[in-house]
Amino acid sequence: MRYLPLSEADRGAMLAKIGVGGIDELFADIPSDKLLKGLIGDLPRAKGELEVERLLGRMAAKNVAAGSVPFFVGAGAYKHHVPATVDHVIQRSEFLTSYTPYQPEIAQGTLQYLFEFQTQVALLTGMEVANASMYDGSTGTAEAVLMAHRVTRRRKAVLSGGLHPHYRAVVETVSGMAGDAVTALPPDVRAAEDLAAAIDGETSCLVVQTPDVYGNLRDLTPLAAACEAKGVLLIAVFTEATALGAITSPGQMGADIVVGEGQSIGNGLNFGGPYVGLFACKQKYLRQMPGRLCGETVDAEGKRGFVLTLSTREQHIRRDKATSNICTNSGLCCLAFTIHLALLGEAGLRRVAAICHANAVQLADQLAGVKGVKVLNETFFNEFTLELPGDAAAIVEKLAARGVLAGVPVSRLEPGHPELANLLLVASTEVNTDEDRASFVAALKEVL
Amino acid sequence: MLNNQGRPTQAGEAGAATHNTFTGNRGLQIEEALLFEVGRAETTGVDFPAPPAVKSRLGGLARDAAIGLVGLSEPETMRHYVRLSQKNYGIDSGLFPLGSCTMKHNPRLNEKMARLPGFGDVHPLQPLSTVKGALELMEELGRWLKVLTGMPAVALSTKAGAHGELCGMMAIKAAIAARGEQDTRTVVLVPDSAHGTNPATAALIGFTIKTVPARADGTVDPAAVAALTGPDTAAIMLTNPNTCGLFEKDVVAIAEAVHAAGGYFYCDGANFNAIVGKARPGELGVDAMHINLHKTFSTPHGGGGPGAGPVVLSERLAAFAPVPYTVVTADGVRLVEDAAENGSFGRITAFHGQMGMYVRALSFMLSHGADGLRQASEDAVLNANYIRAGLSDLMSQPFGDRACMHEVLFDDSWLKDTGVTTLDFAKAMIDEGYHPMTMYFPLVVHGAMLIEPTESESKASLDLFIMTLRDLAFAAKRGDSERFSGAPYLAPRRRLDETRAARAPVLRWTPPKPLSLAAE
């Protein structure tokens, strides 16, 4: 077996040195009736690289890759171009095969990029501090709600109807299990809900997504004022990080905690994971923040260096009193994020965001010209909601058969709402071409 | 003085430490400024055409203020990150004996497979008719996990080990609620040797923790468990093999005691890598167990993530599994995404979990096969015991010199009166070119040093490691304290001031003040 260096002779010599007669003497604590005698049936034997490539290659070939078709699927994960440099660097052994930087003297590479990442995230979100990342945007949102409960000592969250339904479900599941209350407002396709009226003196936090899941941009400034008046924390959520290059940052609009999905920058679609959750807040809430934090310090010779810090919040010190059970971040994905953002810089991010927006505007205008099709949004960044003259899921299947992946039927995310069945979420990024848009429009005309 | 590998044994002899350079660089070790000190606002390393002119649909929310980001050209980017990488230690650099973390070889085939466009470039919400192979892969990975653990069901979507714990404990909480006992079954038993995530997870969803003390041999006594159980018992969270590197030999009796009280057995599967193909948790009374794909099945640790922590479930808990999950139908593999469809306790992440990790783990399993996985467990245990045999005369073991599983645990009583601490010893290992072992964990052992070599090490590598630790141990005992107290001397940084970092946290770069202000 190519991954196992020991020879049979090595094994024999080592057993002799240990002073046992056979390997199973080392497994003597396993009750003898539970110790497996032979190999587990139903599983194949070892295979060479070539065979494994063949097997997995066959499975992969049954999927339609986003890059192979006109592609407009979003709703929380987005197809962007990632420069070749990113994937090369994250596969360097010293990044790929290292561990959480518990020994900072030999992990300054990881720690410095985490410090740079935290700075980038704080700047993008317009917040004072950011952590070293969460698993993804959805779990980060659930953690933000728990954090707000700790800060306010209240236990009720109010969720906007524009929050991604999966995010809502994760918050509801975690809160339900923790015994906390959640008021989730009904799906709000047109950003018409009155959120200020939905909070009261028992509310710990108001969770609002912008751009929301239907694509609408939301002005958080008036909400921030309403929240402050009632002692409620405003949690701003985003699922498309590229949008932050084009729109006013949540921090500028007064959010207390900002959390979102960072996949768009540096990370591929990967059928849903691994992704990278971005998490930032006001400095005054730092001690209640979940997740890993990297901080600056000096070494014994006075040289600048970085360490994991404020770990007295964390589970390995505080155990059942910890701020969170989280024991890791999304290391390599946040490395990909920070490299891609270093390549883009201020100028590149703003340009790619502008291209995304322009492509989406062109697409919306063209689709609105198809008979029976309506764009519902007043505002949007790179994703909007279409009202179709029939069931969106069925239409998406027909479009897929014509080689166009057109978007996400709202019914996939909100199965219990027949009134939303004709709605389709359509996203566009810098990868889309004039030809892609023409194919989409032509195919849609055919199937309607 | 040089040792038999031709390497200096004294820090001062290395030369590099005392030879000053103009740049502060030391040969291949190059100092690298922060991104924000080398980047520029106007620079970008990505070329795009100007955006087409359109009428903005951003309403009044277009960004007006600068973000404050900086950019680098592509060559500068490469250099920045390559230099940073050279300050890191990885498995590919050398033996990485970090106990409980399982730093084994990461096959590059797995990376290649995860990047096939059919896996890496597939959206979680594109039509299910266009992702049949992806669903098939999830089902196949789940099948391997179920067969290897002897458990009937699996929840794949959890994002890390601790997330898996949360998922498993949620399934237990849901099962208790389904029995109408949510108000009375509120206590979770956790041994004092457990990972910190166990009590943190149980507390997160409202359970009260009762600690089970370990007995003198480092394992849990079923009588102690039975004495703590009652009608309020929700579950026990037991790590097996445990964090002392020992198999809980009374695991079956412990499971029976908890079941007899009406509770559930959550097994922390962090150390499953020791027993794959040797024993099946399903036959030991386990109700739920997470599997760290990044440990046992070698998906890369990546400097702290991303991980993946699928949870296998017993018949009693299977119905409560979170969405999404796959089911096999006559038409192929189906994905269930709506929690309302059955008794699911809900959803714990957007989308379907760590697909990129599923591919890598399945690639690892297919490569090993049932025979290779069993051999890997045996080699991991053999390697740990070989280190034990090579060091047991010099270093003390808290529970006596007895066979261990995949990791061997020493305490610091052998360092008494030397002035050298576990931390010093670990830092001196860095100068020798090794990543230190896990220090001060498990908490139940004073000055713990937990060494896990994994199956990836050759005998020659282990021999050199043993000789190195013996040399260090002799040095400590003969009072060569300088080799320890200031260590590391030869790493990219000397010992870092963690107290200072925590006292006045600096968590991001901020622009330096103009000189006129700084002078005030």
Describe the main β-sheet of chain A briefly. 7 strands, mixed
- Structurally, the number of domains of chain A stands at 2
Residues in helices of chain A, as a percent range? 25-40%
The CATH C-level name of the largest domain in chain A is: Alpha Beta
Oligomer: heterodimer
> Under CATH, the topology of the largest domain in chain A is which?
Aspartate Aminotransferase, domain 2
The overall pLDDT of chain A, averaged over residues, is 97
Can you summarize the main beta sheet of chain B?
7 strands, mixed
Summarize the structure.
Chain A contains 13 helices and 13 strands. Chain A is an alpha/beta fold.
List keywords for this structure.
heterodimer; A: 448 residues; alpha/beta; Aspartate Aminotransferase, domain 1; Aspartate Aminotransferase, domain 2; seven-stranded mixed sheet; four-stranded antiparallel sheet; 13 strands; globular; B: 520 residues; 2 domains; three-stranded antiparallel sheet; 16 helices
What does this structure look like?
Chain A contains 13 helices and 13 strands. With 448 residues, chain A is an alpha/beta fold. Chain A folds into two domains: 116 residues, Aspartate Aminotransferase, domain 1 (Alpha-Beta Complex); 257 residues, 3-Layer(aba) Sandwich (Aspartate Aminotransferase, domain 2), CATH 3.40.640. In chain A, α8 links the parallel β4 and β5. Chain A is globular and about 80 Å long. In chain B, strands 1-7-6-5-4-2-3 form a seven-stranded mixed sheet, sandwiched between helices. Chain B has a three-stranded antiparallel sheet with strand order 10-12-11, with helices on one face. Chain B has a two-stranded antiparallel ribbon with strand order 8-9. About 1% of the residues of chain B have low confidence. Chains A and B meet through α1, α2, α3, α4 and α5 of A and α2, α3, α4, α5 and α6 of B.
